[in-house]
Amino acid sequence: MKLTKPHAAMFASPGMGHVIPVIELGKRLAGSHGFRITIFVLEADAASAQSQFLNSPGSDANLVDVIGLPTPDISGLVDPSAFVGVKLLVMMRETIPTLRSKIAKMEHKPTVLIVDVIGLDALKLGEEFNMLTYVFIASNARFLAVVMYFPTLDKDDEEEHIIKKKPLAIPGCEPLRFEDTLEPYLDPNDQTYRECVPLGLLYPTADGYIVNTWDDMESKTLKSLQDPKLMGRIARKPVYPIGPLSRPVDPSKTNHPVLDWLNKQPDESVLYVSFGSGGSLSAKQLTELAWGL
């Protein structure tokens, strides 16, 4: 009897900061653990960085199967001026029927579903198709602790942190300074807050958390997340630190004028500012930012 490979489906949010880590995790599961990997990702414009990356020869697409899903029309669901994170959340939520249909038509259905932090609504598909479900956190354990703790705050704690700007005490973790609080968590009256904060309640519905970190990097937070007397009482599921996940450097891109310039600068003399794959500034805006720095 021929043994079949374990099959994991992964649901990636659009944008390079989401797609690249998901693909790197998929490659690791395929190359080191013998998984068959199917990655579902929302289709982007052909000229976008995401499309160019997925279609490039060096993306190791042979290790994973990437299936594009049509981007849903959310114009009637979200205000055009809404925070980009809210738009992504709604897009991912509206894509679930298509994802469900794709999985249902698979001859060899996945036994595992891995979603990233914007695709949490898809966790419910686990029960429908008898799949184990995991949340992949591409950032760190600190993020996981914060987003799961926020929905548990009472009005007094919320006011102390958001209105009075006091540090937020998180069980077993370093306090969260107001200055370090994610923007979507700053205004309880805003749609962004109402969309993002309740998502923290969905994390424990998964079978576990796969986090791009390691014990020496975040030992205190990881211990708290697994201690039933601390954050473990909220997480309630195993935490798997599998980091660091990093993309190998393409040798063909090491000889580049920008890298040549960087290599000539003194150590610790350059500040790197990233706007993400979806960010863009005009020359005037970039100049103003440079003057500000």
Question: Would you give an account of this structure?
Answer:
With 293 residues, this protein is α/β, with parallel strands linked by helices. Strands 3-2-1-4-5-6-7 form a seven-stranded parallel beta sheet.
Quick summary of this structure?
This is UDP-glycosyltransferase 72E1. By secondary structure, the protein is of the alpha/beta class.
Keywords:
single chain; 293 residues; alpha/beta; 2 domains; 7-stranded parallel β-sheet; glycosyltransferase; UDP-glycosyltransferase 72E1; transferase; coniferyl-alcohol glucosyltransferase activity
Overall SS class: alpha/beta
Work out the strand percent: 5-15%
Number of helices: 11
Order of helices and strands: EHEHEHEHEHHHEHHEHH
Query: What's the structural domain tally?
Result: 2
The low-confidence parts are: none
User: Can you tell me the CATH superfamily of the largest domain?
Assistant: Glycogen Phosphorylase B
- End-to-end Cα distance, whole Å, is 64 Å
> CATH class of the largest domain, please?
Alpha Beta
Q: From the coordinates shown, what is the CATH architecture of the largest domain?
A: 3-Layer(aba) Sandwich
Computed Rg: 20 Å
CATH topology of the largest domain: Rossmann fold
Q: What is the tally of beta strands?
A: 7
Strand line-up across the major sheet? 3-2-1-4-5-6-7
Mean pLDDT, as a whole number? 89
Broad shape: globular
Helix content: 25-40%
Largest sheet: 7 strands, parallel
Write the layout of secondary structure elements.
Elements (H helix, E strand, L loop, with lengths): L6 E6 L3 H18 L2 E7 L6 H7 L9 E5 L14 H21 L7 E5 L8 H4 L3 E6 L3 H9 L5 H9 L27 H6 L11 E4 L7 H7 L6 H4 L3 E3 L15 H7 L19 H10 L1
Parallel strand pairs: 1-2, 1-4, 2-3, 4-5, 5-6, 6-7
